[in-house]
Every structure is written in C-alpha cells, then in structure tokens.
Amino acid sequence: MSMLAASPELSFTELRDSLGMTDGNLTTHIRTLQQEGYISVAKTYQNNRPLTTCSLTASGRKAFTGYINLLEQIVRQNKSK
After folding, report:
1. What CATH number is attached to the domain comprising 38?
2. Is the CB of residue 15 less than 8 Å from the CB of residue 6?
3. Which of 29, 48, 54, 56 could in theory staple to 60 by disulfide, Cβ–Cβ 3.0 to 4.6 A?
4. Domains: count for the chain
C-alpha cells in the first residue's frame, strides 16, 4: 500500500521485485486488497507481453491515510511517556 500511495501506478513486476515477494504471494495480497476495494488492477499488453498494473483507489487512499494517522498518533503518545 505504501508503494502504491507514493506512485500513481506500479506494475506487478515492479511490486514483486521491490518487495522481494514470490509471484504467488504477491498475487494473493493483490487479490485481497482488490476484494476490499483498496486497489484497482488493470491488465493490458506492452510490446506484445502481458502487463498487470496496480493503483490505489480513492477508498484505498483513504484507508491508508487513516492507517498512517493512527501510527502517527501512537508515536506521539509514546514520545510523551
């Protein structure tokens, strides 16, 4: 989610290689995030080869922002201790 929040769109290969995940593991994560409505997946062709790209949906961006805000709140609370 953080990688997609920082980029308008990333290919399956970019995500896989950056995260060091297997194809199957990444596919499972993508499917779960897509089912929750957090990412959209587009399947096209580039140079006669399949190209799968992912991007955050508005709902995904909102959920990720909420998660970041929660983490920031936890950090602030622990700094004051």
Report:
1. 1.10.10.10
2. no
3. 56
4. 1
